[in-house]
């Protein structure tokens, strides 16, 4: 048996924290979830309650964004002053957008991305009983701003 000697140095990247001053920052992220016509018709007929579906997804996205630092390495835990998740339909595709705003010295982009991703996964989880062929994405950051510049 040939074992490699372990180094006493940690095997991870260290994170240089930003020492910039706090400023008003915003981030907007978007994603979509493409549902089958069957799922869309169940929602339109009220057999899947759209209001409850979106409420559950909104709560899950909000909780994920608030706790991002607990499950994404090097993501700074921070409190958002505003966190909004909105939904809109275009045929059988549901668009999800998150808006995050806070006065902070670190970026909010990860929080916005986590919020929409988790909201989409929640919708997938609720609707998978009817069809597992839903497609999530693309997921992307559509706006990021920092008023300190």
Describe this structure in words.
The structure is a single chain. The protein is 32% helix and 28% strand. It is built from four helices and five strands. The chain is elongated, with a radius of gyration of 19 Å. Strands 1, 2, 3, 4 and 5 form a five-stranded antiparallel sheet that branches. The mean pLDDT is 86. It starts with 22 loop residues before the first strand and ends with a strand. It is an alpha+beta fold.
Task: Describe the structure using short key phrases.
about 150 residues, 4 helices, elongated
Query: What is the count of DSSP helices, taking H or I runs of 4+ residues?
Result: 4
The major sheet is characterized as:
5 strands, antiparallel
Distance between the termini: 58 Å
Radius of gyration: 19 Å
**Mean pLDDT reading:** 86
Give the overall silhouette.
Answer: elongated
Low-confidence stretches: none
SSE ordering: EHHHEEHEE
Number of strands: 5
Estimated structural class:
alpha+beta
What fraction strand?
Answer: 25-35%
Helical content band: 25-40%
């Amino acid at each position: 048996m040939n074992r490699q000697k372990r180094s006493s140095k940690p095997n991870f990247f260290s994170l240089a924290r930003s020492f910039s001053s706090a400023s008003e920052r915003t981030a907007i992220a978007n994603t979509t979830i493409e549902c089958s016509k069957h799922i869309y018709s169940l929602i339109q007929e009220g057999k899947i309650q759209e209001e409850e579906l979106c409420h559950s997804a909104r709560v899950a996205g909000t909780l994920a964004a608030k706790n991002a630092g607990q499950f994404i390495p090097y993501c700074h835990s921070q409190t958002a002053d505003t966190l909004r998740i909105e939904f809109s339909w275009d045929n059988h595709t549901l668009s999800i957008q998150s808006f995050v705003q806070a006065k902070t010295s670190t970026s909010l982009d990860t929080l916005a991305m986590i919020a929409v991703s988790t909201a989409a996964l929640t919708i997938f989880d609720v609707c998978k009983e009817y069809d597992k062929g839903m497609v999530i994405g693309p997921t992307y950051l559509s706006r990021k701003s920092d008023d300190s510049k």
